[in-house]
Known about the structure:
four-stranded parallel beta sheet; 5% strand; mainly alpha; 64% helix; flat; 17 helices
Amino acid sequence: MKSKVQSFGRFLSAMVMPNIGAFIAWGLITALFIDSGWLPNKQLNTMVSPFLTFVLPLLIAYQGGKLVGGDRGAVMGAIACVGVVMGEPNYTMLMGAMIIGPLAGWVIKKFDAAMDGHIKPGFEMLVNNFSVGIIGMLLAIVGFYLIGPFMGAILTVLNGGVNILVQHSLLPLVSIFVEPAKVLFLNNAINHGIFTPLGGEQVQAVGKSIFFMIETNPGPGTGVLLAYWLFSKDETTKSSAPGALIIHLLGGIHEISFPYILMNPLLLLATIGGSMCAMIYNTVFNLGLSGPASPGSIIAFVGMAPKGSTLAVLLSVVIAAGVSFLIASPIVRMSNGKGQSLEEASAQMADMKAESKGQAASTSAVVDLAKVTKIVFACDAGMGSSAMGAAVLKKKLQAAGLTDIDVQHASVSEVPEGTQVVVCHKDLAERAKESAPQARLITITNFMAAPEYDQLVNEIKEARG
């Protein structure tokens, strides 16, 4: 069940994440050039609305169609999305784009499968071009009369619910669900699949959104890592915490803090408490960001602050980190009495099923390590923790003289063909096996100090003699 939820969430976020640069560009234009921005400019301010109304939904629909139907599906998604956007012009159709894009890709994919082998030689280009044009037009009409108004009704209900949460100061309660979901690697799905579309609606109305401050705040994880750094008596955990803290806070890769939380589930109280206190503060002082802070670095978080609220937004991170640290400190101290290390404590998690400390990780295929030339480090989105892990592993391989091995990073759902070894967090193991059944699977629990890195390097060296 968890794997299915992760996969669905990954699909939603996969439509948004490749376009995050466009969201940031729109956020910066908003922060700088609107009437209340840092550099008010009436001419440049005219770009804000077209970005939100057309560019961002079209990019999402294009990406959604491409995920399902390839390049032809991408074009279909963009065509059909115009109908959805114009069908309900009073709302930003980011969510509508996330529906029509994959639908359009699926339709053209089914059409191509039905026509395979039935097109007369020489007519392929004619059929291919006109099929996209005709079917795309029909889907745009469906989007205009059906999907656009339908999504408008849904967004009306959602906005009403959001207003109730804000007016009754209930929004901080969202942290109770968000923080546990994050450590199950649903952080990208929550942020980009839910909060980014809702935030876009709010920015269009008031120029900023509190939804951009919920999942991306690095404060809660910062407090937990500080507690481990100062109070952990396990040397492996203590020595790895400072590096993890820098990567988490400045690099914005929140996944690096998840194993530290999972090794003692009581630490969820710390992250929930820190997030809730920050959200109470954000709600009371009516704070928000001009665009999504991605990655969730304190640099990006503060950089998206509207004019005049930079220090207030920074204080939101400080509050979250401080409260999280105060709650996490006694929990970390008490857990030390049990003599558990990071790996040992993680192994006790029933849902993680970790291997014993120092043993080889589970594999899904038998691979001749002497012939390994391609290793892929995979994470949920294929950008943050996987890029960092791939860099660490590559350095270890080069230090061992294994310079002919290509180390890449990718989404766990899209492992490239020809991959011989896949390295990922053990919570993503099932999805990795489905994506690359031919590869040997190495699962880890600690991105910074995983013993499996050195073990894999040593096994390859031994295999090569």
